[in-house]
Every structure is written in structure tokens, then in C-alpha cells.
Amino acid sequence: MTNLSQTSRRSLLRLMVASAAAPLLVPRRLFGASAPSNKITLGCIGIGWQGGGNLNAFLQQDDCQVVAMCDVDEAHLKEAVDKANARYGNQDCKGYKDFRELLARKDIDAVCISTPDHWHAIPVIAAADAGKDIYCEKPLSHTLSEGIAMVRAAQRNKCVWQTGSWQRREGLFRWAVELVQNGYLGKITRVEVGLPAGHTDFGKTGRDLPNGPVPPGVDYDFWTGPAQMMPFNPCRFHKNWRWNYNTGGGQLMDWIGHHCDIAHWGLANPKYGCGPDDSVGPLTVSGTADFPAKDEVWNTATKYRIECAYPNDVEVVIAGGHDEIKSGAKWYGPNGWVYVTRGTIDASNRQWIREIQDREKKGDLGIQLFKSPGHQREFLDCIRSRKRTLTPVEVAHRSQTPGHLGHLAAVLGRKLKWDAAKEEVVGDPEANRLLSKTMRPPWHI
């Protein structure tokens, strides 16, 4: 007979879900005296801007308790820990500077990782190997090779995974994709994905401040982690780390996990799109981009255009800074077009929009997509049911793939032939070497 003290909490969740169709109510005694009843216990790694928003969402869920926080900025960490303890009326939430200490706790079921791009792969792989379910921000990874390793780790450990590509929970995006997948446009021939251009000064620093001292309470060496060590500059720190390729990927990678994710979702139909699911990938990729000088504080592309050939003769264009490509996702077929972005849905035949909404309510759509109760809420539900989320790790990886390849094609100045099954550039050793970056010791994956 299995010794319960030797069984992980996540294994118990699986066993109990498999044995009962009713909502899961796990007796506190099974998990030990320190466990918060039937609640899913969560640790948050990275609790600045986006991490703070994710934390607030999880704090609103009554069946979840945030028991641990991790951040290299003491001010962020203290504020978040205090907020959690105030929410629960106790002092149970603990703070850590090193994510490895948080992951070593056996009483944590899942983690929310909202770190800068260069700090996704290492904690994700460690969390998966520690048996945690994972909510992770987009883009999935800083390099394509890191994404491959993250997918393998999540699959190896059978993690429930949710990516922060929250647009899939919104009705406008769901209706647009249902129109496309249900054949209103006919066979899709072209998709346009519009993303932002330039740089957005999220940190309110501008790009011209000199290097300076590290702010008090910040472990800058740990913050830099596997990236190249550079002098501290406030213009490439909190929020604005996106605009330097050492730690981010610019507007292209900051947004590819949103609008390209929706574009791929629409193509998840073998008759009208590219294949049976949304793990679709390009066949060839070419790209052009305007890059600042490499030694600029903000050196990510300010304008870019990526041309992709997809299976089933679908052309996909991803662009930022080109006026003819509007922000959002737009599909074309012989019967017309459908366009969606945040706050807007449109179509060549606007009657389709009302029709798809009515048919969805009646439940008579051939393909009717899941209506999410909310991105964080759905993640918690899937932890209990062990079902696949709306944005699992494989989907997040495929959504970002044309962004990584398009950037590489622009840097190299040539078209790349992509083998999606092997995940390698065909006949181009130089391009394959550039799919990864050397990590600063002692960090590695």
C-alpha cells in the first residue's frame, strides 16, 4: 500500500481526480498539518510589473493560497509578501531571493513565473523537474533552443501549463477564431499579424541615461543571471529590459505570443487552415528589420517584416511599423476576411459576427471553442482536473517560433527553411548555432 507521506501532493491530486468526477475536495490530513486545507498552494517567481498583475489575479481565487514569493528586488519582494499576508490575515507567505529555495519546498503545488525573458528557461526547467505545475509569461523563451528545452521539461514531468497569452479568454478573439475555423472564409490563403514598432518607455527612463549605481536592495548579479554582465543602466532595467537583446526581444518578441498565438489558433483546422491543432509551424521564413547599433542601450528592432510560408499554401506576414498591416490578426480566404485586435472585431461581412455569437449561444457550431472562466482561474481548474489549458507549453513555443526565426532571418539576410518536426534550420549550420546563446557561468540548462 502506498505511503501517503511519500506521495507528492500533485500525485495525490491526479489520483483523486481520476477516481471521482465530482469537484475535488482533498482532506487536509492527507497533505500534512501545514497544508492550507484543500487549497492549491502557489509560489510566485518575479513579482514586478507583470508579476504583480498575476499575483493580484491569484490572490482573488479562494481555492488558491500564495505561500511564497521570489524576487531579486527587496522592495518588490516586501510589497508582494505584505500584500499576500494582508489578504490572508496571517504571516504564512514567505519571501526568497533565490528561486531554488522556493522550488525546494515540497508544500508548493504550482508556480507563476513572471521574470524577464532571459530568466524563463532556467527556473521553468527547475520547477518542472521539482514537480510543480507552471504558469509562465510570454514569450515562452529568450531563444528558440531554450523554448525546445522548456517544452521537453514540461512534457517529461507531465506539468499542467498555462502561458500568459490571455487573449484566448476574451470573447472577441474566440468569435474571430470560430468564424475562421468554421469555414466562413473558406480555405485560408493569407494571414496578417500586426505588432507594435519602435520602443515604448515603460520604465519612464528614456534611453539616454548614463550607467550608474545599482539601486539599494537589488541583487544585480542575480538579476543578470545567465545574460551577459553589463554595467548597470536604469534604461535597461525594470520594464525596459525588453529593448536590449541581452535580456529581451523587442516589440517583436514582446507581442508575438499574443497576436501570432491568435493567428495560429485560427489556422488549427486541416480543411480551412494548416493542420489539426494550433501547434502549427512555418516551412520557410524570411525577414527584414531596422536595427539600432548593437552597443545602443535600446538595440532591438524598431521596424520589421517577416514573410512565412505555412503548410497547405498559407502565407503569413508578421510586421511592425508597416502601416498596411494593422495591429492584431487578420485572416483572408475566398469568401472574405476576418480581423480582430484588442477591443475590436470586424469582417468583410459583419453579419457573420452576430451569427457566430448567436450560434455559439445555441451550441450549434461545428467547432465551438472553450469559453474560459479567466486565465488564472482556468489554470487552477486544470491543476485539479489535469486537463490541457488553453495555452499549453507546446502552443506557446509554436506561437513564438516565427518571431525567433524571423529575427534570425533578418540578421543573416537570407531565407530560412524550417523543419518543424526536427526543429532545425535545414542546411544552414550557422543559423542553427544562432538558435541559442551562451549562458553566463555558472548558469546553464
Description:
The protein has helices spanning 9-19, 28-31, 49-59, 74-88, 99-103, 121-129, 144-156, 171-181, 220-224, 250-266, 351-362, 375-385, 393-412, 429-433, and strands at residues 40-45, 64-70, 94-96, 110-113, 133-136, 161-163, 190-195, 284-290, 303-310, 314-320, 328-333, 336-341, 344-347, 416-419, 424-425. 33% of the residues lie in helices and 17% in strands. It folds into two domains: 4-167, NAD(P)-binding Rossmann-like Domain (Rossmann fold, 3-Layer(aba) Sandwich), CATH 3.40.50; 171-199 and 239-369 and 394-433, Dihydrodipicolinate Reductase, domain 2 (2-Layer Sandwich). The radius of gyration is 22 Å and the shape is globular. The chain is of the alpha/beta class. It starts with 8 loop residues before the first helix and ends in a 12-residue tail after the last helix. The chain is built from 14 helices and 15 strands. The relative contact order is 0.15. The strands form two sheets. The protein has a nine-stranded mixed β-sheet with strand order 13-12-11-7-10-9-8-14-15. It has a six-stranded parallel β-sheet with strand order 3-2-1-4-5-6, with helices on both faces. Helix 7 (144-156) links the parallel strand 5 and strand 6 (161-163). Helix 6 (121-129) packs parallel to helix 7, helix 7 (144-156) packs antiparallel against helix 13 and helix 8 (171-181) packs across helix 11 (351-362).
